[in-house]
Design brief:
alpha/beta, 2 domains, 9 helices
């Protein structure tokens, strides 16, 4: 058997519930996660609820009520956080004018996403990582723009996670760029996300990951009465809808139906989230979103970007898309009193540590190949150094074909490896690793040729 110089193996220990655990925490990121405040999260949400309604069609001229007042307040908070960023953070409202569509927009509409940009410090690094939530909300009737709609969980919880991430991460610098976005128009048909995703496609943004947070602050379900604040779901598409023709044939021939960009991102979110946040299991769900439903990550997925949806484990439909009322002894409505702020703190931490780990890591290794020139029970991998970032080495990831998660991580200093694992029985990928131990997203090898 060949010796593997410079290797050490980090086993991802799986419990009965398959919760991955690694103990190597970056102390800087660990400190950031510890700074997340339940009180801050609650204050953001109570302020958003105070605007009465945030329906996308609601007033944009009232200073205290409606979507206009809400997005101006978010912008003000972003600019407040920017004062402590050393000039790295800038914020604005990105607007576009939409016409009536005969469906959920019945008037000419000025749509606005609130965007904060934490500019990366490495001029050679064009990577962008995005965290989003949607600022708008709805009553039982999505066209009701005047009645009160608290929207505490859907989706003030997601926007609060975005805002708290801005507050903490803006005090630090990263090689790559992070965007923090409070989307508009989600309930009217993913309008703000479609606008931003199309803009990103046309301008060739190098978006490596988008974490969309939508309904993530409550711990209980109606009907089943399950209460659990130790699990959070991450939804991911198997592979891109753009993978057609030759790309689809390659996926089929290599058995990579479960290894698209979004699915790899979901695995990353699970591993890193569970590394830094105690008493939280990230549950991967193998579909793009809830059954026959959608969210703001979908327009990005449809354009070939890696994007996932993060949502609480047990949704309560009494408190979602409902007018506030008591009916048959049941309290309906998306009220603040139904949120669990400790649960939201953990879920925010799961987002923050992933953003920080990604933005601190080098870019992904390039031209990752597996040698197929001859039949062998070894797997021969090779790759090239990443385009940007200072590296300590690389992780080779290994899992059995039936495993949902990477089971082994092998550290190597070289850009090639001969592994005593058969490519017939295992999947492989390679990550770049920074000097602080932060990993890039994983790259699955393609055949080097016969």
């Amino acid at each position: 058997m060949k010796k593997l110089p410079g290797f050490f193996i980090v086993l991802l220990v799986s419990s009965v519930v398959m919760a991955q655990t690694t103990i190597n925490r970056d102390p800087v990121i660990e400190k950031m996660v510890g700074e997340i405040s339940k009180d801050s999260l609650e204050s953001y949400i109570r302020k958003m609820v105070s605007f009465g309604t945030r329906n996308t069609l609601s007033t944009q001229t009232d200073m205290k009520r409606g979507i206009g007042a809400a997005r101006n307040w978010v912008l003000d908070k972003f600019n407040e956080f920017a004062k402590h960023s050393g000039g790295r953070l800038t914020a604005y409202i990105d607007t576009t004018t939409l016409q009536k569509d005969g469906r959920r927009v019945d008037t000419t509409l000025l749509l606005g996403n609130v965007v904060a940009t934490l500019k990366g410090t490495d001029p050679t690094d064009d990577r962008i990582f995005i965290i989003s939530g949607h600022l708008d909300n709805m009553r039982s009737n999505v066209m009701d723009r005047t009645g009160d709609a608290p929207g505490a969980n859907d989706d003030a919880s997601g926007v609060a996670a975005v805002m708290e991430s801005v507050r903490i991460l803006s005090k630090h610098s990263f090689p790559a760029t992070i965007l923090f976005v409070a989307m508009s128009g989600e309930e009217q048909g993913l309008l703000g996300a479609n606008y931003m995703a199309e803009k990103a496609r046309k301008q060739n943004w190098n978006i490596e990951a988008l974490l969309n947070n939508d309904i993530m602050g409550s711990n209980n379900s109606n009907e089943t009465n399950i209460i659990n604040n130790t699990k959070i779901r991450v939804f991911s598409e198997a592979f891109s809808v753009q993978d057609t023709g030759k790309a689809a044939l390659t996926i089929r021939s290599l058995g990579l139906e479960n290894d698209g960009k979004a699915r790899q991102l979901a695995r990353y979110v699970k591993e890193v989230g569970e590394r830094y946040v105690d008493n939280l299991e990230v549950v991967m769900v193998y579909r793009n979103d809830r059954f026959l439903r959608g969210g703001d990550h979908t327009p990005f997925v449809q354009r070939g970007f890696a994007a996932v949806r993060i949502t609480e484990m047990n949704e309560n439909y009494y408190h979602q898309h409902q007018d506030v009322r008591i009916e048959n002894g049941i309290q309906y409505g998306d009220l603040v009193e139904f949120l669990d702020f400790e649960y939201l703190r953990k879920n925010t931490g799961m987002n923050l540590c992933n953003l920080a780990n990604l933005a601190k890591a080098p870019s992904m290794p390039q031209e990752v190949k597996v040698d197929t020139k001859k039949l062998t029970n070894f797997t021969n991998l090779s790759w090239k150094a990443p385009k940007s970032g200072k590296i300590k080495g690389y992780f080779i990831l290994i899992r059995e074909t039936t495993s949902a998660f990477w089971q082994k991580k092998i550290f190597i200093l070289d850009t090639k490896a001969d592994l005593p694992y058969s490519k017939d029985n295992y999947f492989f990928a390679v990550q770049s690793v920074s000097e602080d131990g932060n990993e890039s997203l994983a790259v699955v090898p393609s055949p080097a040729g016969r």
